[in-house]
Design a protein that fits this description.
Elements: E1 2-5, E2 8-11, H1 23-26, H2 34-67, H3 73-85, H4 91-99, H5 105-108, H6 113-119, H7 122-147
Antiparallel strand pairs: 1-2
Helix pairs in contact: 2-3, 2-4, 3-4
Length: about 150
């Protein structure tokens, strides 16, 4: 038989006799006191707080992107929740992405196929006619200046 004395386990002198402490005396079977109830309540509150924090952090980049009218807000929201699912690995990228302002392809000077097709339609013809009248007026003004 081994018993605990101080901070070490030592063999007992009498190994014939079973231990006088029973399992039921160590673990109170069926009785719950006030401290157990208090501990359960504290654990419940902590669990609820953790769930609230995780849900709030999971929604944060998506909400920021929606408030800033980001065109990729839905993708940022998905990336945020994937970041929560991967225990925070992708979450900072979603947060940074929510604050970045995307630039358009037209600002770069690159046109997509859809933009080039729309410019070839009636709207493009109207712009071309307007630019032609501007060129004609500028050419007339230049001819007038050179004639003097």
């Amino acid at each position: 038989m081994v018993r605990l004395t101080g901070s070490t386990w030592e063999p007992s002198e009498n190994t014939d006799r079973p231990s006088t402490r029973s399992y039921s005396s160590i673990v109170r079977s069926g009785t719950i006191d006030v401290f157990d109830i208090f501990a359960f309540a504290v654990f419940g509150v902590l669990l609820a707080a953790v769930v609230i924090v995780v849900v709030t952090l999971g929604q944060l980049p998506g909400q920021i992107a929606k408030q800033r009218n980001h065109p990729q807000a839905a993708a940022i929201n998905v990336a945020s929740w994937l970041g929560v699912a991967t225990l925070g690995i992708l979450w900072p990228f979603a947060m940074i992405w929510a604050y970045l302002k995307p630039f358009s392809a037209a600002a770069n000077g690159a046109n997509s196929d859809r933009e080039s097709q729309s410019s070839a339609s009636g709207d493009g013809q109207a712009q071309l006619a307007k630019m032609q009248t501007q060129v004609d007026s500028l050419q007339a003004a230049l001819n007038k200046l050179t004639a003097k």
